[in-house]
Design goal:
By secondary structure, the protein is α/β, with parallel strands linked by helices. Helix content is 27%, strand content 20%. It is globular, with a radius of gyration of 22 Å. The C terminus is likely disordered.
């Protein structure tokens, strides 16, 4: 299908760029003796997960039971980086295929004990990564002694085994050139936890960390065995602004159509908060996104189905009906707002569906399980529309 003929707003993946981004991440991790276990929250796609695994990823990171269920179709090596604190979630994890070696990140005995009990009753064993707070103040034990207590419990219970540590450096969301001091302090923190576990006779086999903003300096964190960066497969405005990717590394955009140019100095597109998301940049830069080929044009305001482009810095004036591609501030949230994406190969205007099998979270009791791909295969393509845009 011609991209100009698809109904907007919709996410678009440049498949060639995505592949290049995966190859770069794999090459970096291999060069520094680390494994790459990408988080699937960014792409939610079996196709993209297969690409990552085929090129060298050692396994996948997931955040939900649904993601674990879906991704178990492509790998038996999964890490759930989110404490399963409800019986319903634990039951779903225990029902995963027997071929899946599931690791679970958690920070409390309150989550560990029922997980271990259910796993033992199901005749399986889950690996445990004790999470420590790297500085974000979200989840994770805050001192090494607490990590030892959880690790000792994991080592003593049937149904689980102690595998190591995990952390998320989400507090380091500044330009790469300014990260050195925070990375040095994080390195000291990692060393303290590893040393305390070693003194307790529980040296961690795995130290799992990393994020896309810090990905390319993960080698500065001694002891880290794997990184879980996920956003780097597509990148976004925020990642480019932090210097962790270049504009040519952006592999995801939102295709939108200009629906109004009545107000001088602006144009309105049909991509609002339900296509781009309403996240602002931590750097304080204005807007909710930029044009892919005209980054001086920002999405200065946003409603649910409207995005208002600021044309004050350009002589470009789009016509109603023109298509544009927008780079969102945060790709992960934008992807999750779409029922499917369209994949293109570089500048090729031919597009094909990219399914989001990992999107969603809950089971609906008694509901028929209908895959997204099956719904869209059955739908006839819309009539092609011409675009006068030069992107």
């Amino acid at each position: 299908m011609e991209l100009a003929g698809v109904e907007t707003p919709v996410g678009v993946v440049d498949l060639a760029r995505a592949r290049k981004n995966v190859e770069r991440a794999i090459a970096y991790c291999r060069a520094h003796g680390m494994a790459w276990r990408p988080h699937v929250k960014t792409h939610k796609s079996l196709e993209m997960a297969r690409l990552q695994l085929e090129l060298g990823a050692t396994g996948l990171t997931v955040a939900t039971a649904h993601e674990a269920e879906v991704m178990s179709a492509v790998t038996g090596d999964l890490l759930l980086a989110h404490p399963p604190a409800s019986a319903a979630k634990v039951d779903r994890l225990c029902a995963l295929p027997r071929s899946v070696d599931l690791k679970v990140g958690l920070d409390s005995i309150a989550v560990l004990r029922p997980l271990a009990r259910s796993a033992a009753e199901a005749g399986r064993t889950f690996g445990i990564l004790v999470e420590f707070d790297a500085g974000l103040g979200r989840t994770g034990v805050v001192d090494p002694a607490a990590a030892v207590r959880v690790a000792e419990e994991a080592a003593s219970l049937p149904g689980v085994r102690f595998d190591g540590l995990m952390f998320y450096p989400g507090h380091i969301r500044i330009r790469r050139s300014r990260q050195a001091g925070r990375l040095a302090r994080l390195s000291e923190r990692i060393a303290a936890f590893v040393a305390e576990l070693g003194r307790a006779g529980l040296p961690p086999r795995v130290v799992s960390g990393g994020s896309t903003p810090t990905l390319w300096d993960s080698h500065l964190l001694p002891g880290v065995t794997e990184v879980r960066s996920g956003t780097c497969i597509y990148n976004d405005r925020d990642i480019v602004g932090m210097g962790a990717a270049a504009p040519e590394d952006v592999a995801y955009t939102v295709l939108a159509t200009v629906i109004s140019n009545s107000v001088p100095g602006t144009a309105v597109v049909d991509a609002g908060s339900k296509a781009l998301s309403k996240e602002t940049l931590g750097s304080g830069a204005p807007g909710y996104g930029v044009l892919f080929d005209r980054p001086q044009v920002t999405v200065k305001a946003i409603n649910e189905e409207h995005g208002i482009l600021d044309l004050s810095g350009t002589a470009w004036r789009p016509a109603v009906g023109d298509q544009v591609r927008l780079v969102p501030n945060h790709v992960c949230v934008s992807v999750n707002l779409h029922d499917h994406l369209w994949g293109i190969e570089g500048a090729d205007s031919a597009a094909r569906p990219v399914w989001l099998e990992g999107r969603g979270r809950l089971r609906v009791p008694g509901a028929e399980d209908v895959r997204v791909a099956e719904r869209f295969h059955a739908r006839a393509p819309c009539a092609a529309r011409r675009s006068t845009s030069k992107w």
